[in-house]
Write a structure and sequence with these properties.
Strand content: 15-25%
CATH class of the largest domain: Alpha Beta
Strand order of the largest sheet: 1-2-3-5-7-10
CATH topology of the largest domain: 2-enoyl-CoA Hydratase, Chain A, domain 1
Distance between the termini: 25 Å
Length: 275
């Protein structure tokens, strides 16, 4: 067995996890929360496994797009598993966030490739935070989102206070945070919280079309776009201009740039390899 074939075989294998399912194939890493009996609620174990799986996919040069989803038909993720009680009893909630949630959010945002949320059902509390951390959300048109923290006397966490105001503005974010109301998909589309919606039986078709694009796209250029987008709000115009110049220098020596120019001159579709 050649080295290239061995790598392809290993990339197709499912890692052994307790709380999630993973599958790598044809440039795609599919990561699914797998606790349908509790609507994919989050505990320390699943958070650690998700962070590990996303990091592994991000580092895998064969992977060009990551799909994050939930198993079952009702929920993408219902948030923290309150019924199971707090695993870290006696530990400040802030410490639990830093140890369990922050590594996952950073893994998603720092992944140098698109992370698409396949929101197959409700996304509540930290489950909504997890969805918002992804680069794009494609949702079942029957799903809804809710920042229900206020209902138990807490404020939003796991990155929602960062992501939501940037998507909808301060005033609308305050409304969503302080009421904990449900956001159905028509409103979510209008607000720009999700990029596309689809009927349940067509959700995977929409995801497939997005996969078909991103697995053929110039992954290195997209990685640089994502990096700068993450930095936009903490830099002024000159800072962003400087980052653009540095990133474009990297893209300008990539194989994909050479292929893109050649394809343009030859009036054909480019065949990007992601490097």
């Amino acid at each position: 067995m050649s080295f290239r074939i061995l790598i392809k075989y290993l990339n197709q294998q499912t890692m052994n996890y307790q709380y999630i399912l993973t599958e790598n194939d044809s440039g795609v890493s599919r990561i699914s929360l797998n606790r349908p009996e509790v609507f994919n609620a989050l505990n320390g174990g699943i958070l650690k496994e998700l962070a590990k799986a996303v990091t592994h996919a991000a580092e895998n040069q064969e992977i060009r797009v990551i799909i994050l989803s939930g198993t079952g038909e009702k929920a993408f993720c219902s948030g923290a598993d309150l019924k199971a009680g707090f695993e870290d009893a006696g530990k400040p909630l802030g410490q639990t966030l830093k140890e369990n949630y922050e590594p996952l959010i950073h893994a998603i945002r720092n992944a140098p490739k698109p992370v698409i949320c396949r929101m197959n059902g409700i996304a509540a509390g930290a489950g909504m935070s997890l969805a918002l951390a992804c680069d794009m959300i494609v949702a079942d048109e029957n799903a809804y989102m809710t920042e229900l923290f206020v209902g138990i006397g807490l404020m939003p966490d796991a990155g929602s206070m960062f992501f939501l105001p940037r998507l909808v503005g301060m005033q609308k974010a305050f409304d969503i945070f302080s009421t904990g109301r449900k956001i159905y998909m028509k409103e979510a589309l209008d607000l720009g919280l999700v990029i596309k919606t689809a009927p349940t039986d067509q959700l995977d078709t929409v995801i497939h079309d997005m996969i078909a694009y991103y697995t053929q796209a110039p992954t290195k250029a997209i990685a640089e776009m994502k990096y700068i987008l993450n930095k936009t709000y903490e830099n002024g115009l000159q800072g962003v201009l400087d980052m653009e110049a540095a990133a474009q220098t990297k893209c300008g020596v990539s194989n994909d740039f050479g292929e893109g120019v050649m394809a343009f001159l030859q009036k054909r579709k480019p065949e990007f390899k992601g490097n």
